[in-house]
Amino acid sequence: MQLTNGRLTVYQRVLGMTLCSLPFWIMLNLYEISAGEAIPSKDQYLQTFIVALFSGVMATALFFSATDLARKNEKQLAAVEATQSTEVLFALAGEVIFLGSDLPDIYGITGIALVMLGMTLHSLKN
């Protein structure tokens, strides 16, 4: 945000992130193919598409919109950034509800709690 000084729209920023991450995903795909790994099933492609659409595109666009609105107020910006920690809960809920996954074990819950605590404390520090 500081580098572009508001010259890029939310959707341009999302597109930039998508395009800049493509080489990584292509290299990862080529590695998997060269290592002789099995090609993902149709269900895996569907799950990946759902995660990419909801978490990668929609949530990122909403987050960037909120940061643009709050960029001149540090307290508001910290509050917006703290909401990222709740994205973990929404992703988990979506996975359990829509994909039928199991709830995480105690280690997973502890990890989620630590991530949320860390992000919240970091936002409060600013």
UniProtKB/TrEMBL annotation:
Pfam families reported for this sequence: EmrE
Q: Which UniProt keywords apply?
A: Membrane, Transmembrane, Transmembrane helix
> So where does this one cross the membrane?
14-33, 45-65
Q: Does the keyword Transmembrane apply?
A: yes
- This chain belongs to the protein called EamA-like transporter family protein
The major lineage groups are: Bacteria, Pseudomonadati, Bacteroidota, Sphingobacteriia, Sphingobacteriales
